[in-house]
Design brief:
Layout (H helix, E strand, L loop, with lengths): L4 H4 L4 H7 L1 H21 L7 H9 L4 H11 L2 H11 L14 H37 L4 E6 L2 E7 H26 L1 E2 L15 H12 L2 E2 L10 H27 L7 E2 L19 H14 L2 H6 L10 H29 L2 E2 L1 H8 L8 H11 L3 H18 L3 H6 L2 H6 L2 H7 L9 H12 L4
Parallel strand pairs: 3-4
Antiparallel strand pairs: 1-2, 5-6
């Protein structure tokens, strides 16, 4: 019976396949076969033995490995013995000179490489959806907010562009960390490669070439976990951006704001007791699962602080950290893409909220225009501030409070004030910024 929600509720089959038991065994067998191939080529084991080991690797079953492990209580030796059984007389050369983590860490590098390819693909899709949304809504003027309060106008296009730019930086970081997080090694028991003799460096290099990854320059019995920590921190950083995006969507979907809304199916139920509810459950799921991924950073950082040339405290931890963080990160990236693609907008509420403060939110525009007319900036700020406080206290429109002020009336006519206070006229270079970013990001792969 399934226990962990990843087994039945969260995650995509593509990423789950990277971390399942069969894939893990397959990667370990690939490493053993590549090692034998490199050793045979360098005349470290007899010629032809590598071919038999490679053929044997295709015959090993997970059931047999588990059967052996139940008896000997060592996961890697169970694989070695199962492979030796299937390799005829070459069995005695399986795992020759290697230590467990030569196989385990190199297999992990292969899995991380596959996971990174999926994460990059899905993150790039999200970036594209955000660019498209930015272009679609570059002229959708809305209330900007700071400290939870309505400020000067902005556009939905600029919001999406900011998110797209942030996601693009995550892709750049992913590309930079990939070669650091996907290295393998054949360094032996403490890193000296003593069991390989003087051919250790060559054996390691050729083994990794066969596997399509780089070899670590130096290591002890394990690959140093700063590499893995960087990868896990990348996932934590990325899901935090998604958390931020979905918090914004949830906020703007509040009943009293109601500018946007997640898609809601015809037969979808929002509440077991309140039939009217249309809750932003997808965005809430993203925000909730982001907490789990962020929580993986501390364990993986501590996995780099092993005793001496190694201890085993990282092993049990990473059996959880890698698959769980990868599956959940992939899940929330895909989910956020779906949310953005199907986001509903309510233009009438967007315009209503722009006018909610009766022009108070356009005070900066008036201050700037007065300054241009010759009123000092500081004096203009104080004049507009007093008008705003008066309008707020008396409940009148900001325009009327401004017209009552002698200094304002001296420099600005009523028609000029109306034009200045039109939110559509005060979005600066928002449209141009969106166009510029979209042009830049469209060139990205």
């Amino acid at each position: 019976m399934a226990i962990h929600p990843i087994e039945y509720r969260y995650g995509h089959a593509e990423m789950k396949a990277v971390w399942n038991e069969h894939t893990r065994l397959s990667k370990m067998l690939s490493v053993e076969a590549a090692l034998a191939k490199a050793q045979a080529h360098l005349n470290y084991i007899p010629g032809g033995m590598d071919e038999k080991i490679s053929l044997g690797a295709n015959k090993v079953t997970l059931d047999r490995v588990k059967e052996i492990e139940d008896e000997i209580h060592h996961d890697v030796m169970a694989v070695v013995l199962a492979l030796a059984e299937q390799s005829d007389d070459a069995g005695k050369w399986v795992h020759f000179g290697a230590t467990s983590n030569d196989i385990l860490d190199t297999a992990t590098a292969l899995q991380i490489k596959d996971a990174l390819l999926i994460l990059r693909k899905e993150t790039a899709k999200l970036r594209q959806v955000l660019i498209e949304s930015a272009l679609s809504h570059k002229n959708t003027v809305c209330a900007g907010r700071t400290h939870g309060q309505i400020g000067v106008p902005t556009t939905f296009g600029l919001k999406f562009a900011i998110w797209a730019s942030e996601i693009d930086r995550h892709i750049e970081r992913l590309d930079q960390l990939t070669p650091r997080a996907t290295v393998g090694k054949m360094s032996g028991a403490v890193g000296t490669q003593a069991a390989f003799g003087k051919k250790g460096i060559e054996i390691q290099k050729e083994t990794m070439e066969y596997l399509g990854i780089e070899a670590a320059d130096v290591s002890n019995q394990v690959i140093q976990r700063d590499r893995h920590a960087e990868f896990v921190m990348w996932m934590a950083n990325t899901v935090t951006t998604l958390d931020k995006i979905c918090i914004e969507i949830r906020s703007l979907a509040r009943s009293e704001i109601a500018e946007v809304e997640e898609s809601f199916g015809k037969n979808q139920v929002g509440s077991s007791t309140m039939p009217h509810k249309r809750n932003p459950i997808k965005s809430e799921q993203v925000c909730g699962l982001a907490r789990i991924v962020r929580a993986m950073v501390e364990p993986e950082l501590r996995n780099n602080t092993l005793w001496d040339e190694r201890d085993l405290t990282n092993s049990s931890c990473e059996r959880i950290v890698f698959p769980e963080s990868c599956v959940l990160t992939d899940h929330v990236i895909r989910l956020t893409t779906t949310i953005i693609q199907n986001l509903r907008f309510y233009p009438e509420n967007i315009r209503k909220n722009l006018a909610l403060l009766n022009g108070l939110n356009m005070g900066e525009a008036v201050m700037i225009e007065l300054s241009k007319k010759g009123v000092g900036r500081q004096e203009a700020h104080e004049i507009v501030r007093q008008c705003a406080m008066s309008a707020r206290e008396s409940g009148i429109h900001m325009k009327d409070a401004l017209l009552k002020n002698d200094t304002v009336s001296k420099y600005l006519t009523e028609s000029e004030i109306i034009k200045i206070m039109d939110p559509d006229n005060y979005i600066g270079t928002a449209v141009e910024q969106v166009d510029s970013l979209a042009s830049k990001l469209k060139k990205r792969k």
